[in-house]
User: What shape does this take?
Amino acid sequence: MKLTRDFFDRPALAVARELLGKVLVVEAAGRRRAGRIVDCEAYVGQHDLACHASKGRTPRTEVMFGPPGFAYVFLVYGMHHCFNAVTGAPGLAAAVLVRAVEPVEGLEGRGRSDGPGRVCRALGINRSHDGVDLCGGRGPFLEDGPGIARRRVERGPRIGVAYAGAWAKRPYRFWVAGSPFVSGQ
DNA sequence: CTACAGATCTAT
DNA sequence: TAGATCTGTAGC
Assistant: This one.
């Protein structure tokens, strides 16, 4: 079953925790690609110094300030796309970054899907998906999964945000304990 | 306008 | 361990 807007209309931490086990699906040119989320991070708003929105409202971050259930896709280091789902009410710029998926169907790119850049390559996500409605008729969407037992959910600091001071230490990353598909580091 | 750092990944 | 190469910000 496709996740509806109310799923995303909650604090980013709650959404991140529950996105584990959900399936990210991209249908394009008659091909269906899908991966089960095993690793993700919450970026909780403008006050979160690790969140891109903390720099203010820019064309790039605009979608995060809008309603929940939309895709925020950005380019890092000029090469790699990162996929986020916008969460929370309009005005609160929060989102959840998908860091790794377990292959389910039709993935590309040497079969690896650990790391935010590889997730997008494997699923075929690019900037054309930025700002797209995840609860609409077209584009990527999230499908319900079996859910992950509490004892299999691990928490820790987010990756690659050392510049964010105290915010870098907060345990806003969630992953499935023991999954071989979780991103390294 | 130039400089530089960044929610990364790959090949040397 | 360096290189690829786009975006936004800071500094001149």
